[in-house]
């Protein structure tokens, strides 16, 4: 059964900073480590894996953001997983405007967000991208986006007969914030364990000789 959430709230850039300053411990994916375009490869940051929603689509945009557009020059969407259950707290993106060639109609709900658990969609909502280039939009999510094991953000091509470019709409996804997600420790290679054991053995031998 599919549930709809009406709890996604847009905040202006300045107001959001003040409201969110006191947020408890969280895991942030800021895309700062994305230095090249990836095809069918995930981007991983702070234990969260990010993949394109369309196989073979380009996942890129450069350090600090992932570029989404609605005609697949880049991927139109991304999906987040962490190998555990998490809550999605908020995300922010920068609008790069629409590419209409005639009088632009009013576009509504062209960004769809979905939450999944065990392969089943349990929540979805729509957000409207600003038509003004450079607008930063901060979205705060409600309790409907808790207890998930996957979360996606997708940019939809507007349903309109107006003459629109391909892609028509673009955004840079700047940051996604989750509840605290523990990062699994990196196992020490076997060679490292052998080296450590050797060092301890040498130290013990020197103490005996002394």
Blueprint of the fold:
Elements: E1 9-11, H1 13-20, E2 26-29, E3 38-39, E4 43-45, E5 48-52, E6 58-59, E7 66-69, E8 77-81, E9 88-100, E10 111-117, E11 120-127, E12 136-140, E13 150-155, E14 164-179, H2 190-209
Antiparallel strand pairs: 1-12, 2-14, 3-6, 4-5, 5-8, 7-14, 8-13, 9-12, 9-14, 10-11, 10-13
Folded structure, characterized:
With 210 residues, the chain is mainly β. The chain has a single domain, classed as Jelly Rolls, CATH 2.60.120. Helix content is 13%, strand content 40%. A hairpin with a 2-residue loop joins strand 4 (43-45) and strand 5 (48-52). The longest helix is centred in the last third of the chain and has 20 residues, at 190-209. It starts with 8 loop residues before the first strand and ends with a helix. Residues 12-23 have low confidence and may be disordered.
Strands, count: 14
* CATH fold-level topology: Jelly Rolls
Percent helix, as a range, is 10-25%
CATH architecture descriptor name: Sandwich
Straight-line distance between termini: 74 Å
Quick synopsis:
By secondary structure, the protein is mainly beta. Helices cover 13% and strands 40% of the residues.
Keywords:
210 residues; Jelly Rolls; 2 helices; 13% helix; mainly beta; 6-stranded antiparallel beta sheet; single chain
């Amino acid at each position: 059964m599919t549930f709809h959430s009406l709890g996604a709230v847009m905040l202006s850039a300045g107001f959001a900073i003040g409201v969110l300053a006191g947020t408890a411990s969280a895991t942030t994916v800021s895309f700062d480590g994305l230095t090249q375009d990836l095809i069918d490869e995930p981007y991983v940051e702070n234990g969260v894996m990010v993949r394109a929603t369309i196989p073979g689509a380009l996942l890129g945009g450069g350090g600090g953001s992932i570029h989404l557009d609605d005609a697949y020059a880049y991927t139109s969407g991304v999906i987040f997983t962490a190998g555990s259950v998490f809550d999605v707290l908020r995300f922010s993106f920068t609008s790069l405007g629409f590419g209409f060639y005639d009088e632009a109609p009013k576009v509504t709900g062209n960004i769809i967000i979905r939450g999944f658990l065990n392969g089943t969609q349990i929540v979805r909502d729509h957000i409207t991208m600003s038509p003004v280039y450079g607008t930063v939009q901060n979205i705060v999510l409600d309790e409907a986006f808790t207890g998930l094991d996957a979360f996606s953000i997708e940019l939809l091509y507007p349903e309109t007969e107006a003459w629109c470019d391909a892609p028509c709409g673009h955004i840079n996804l700047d940051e996604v914030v989750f509840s605290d997600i523990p990062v699994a420790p990196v196992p020490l290679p076997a060679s490292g364990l052998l080296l450590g054991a050797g060092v301890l053995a040498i130290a013990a031998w020197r103490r005996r000789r002394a």
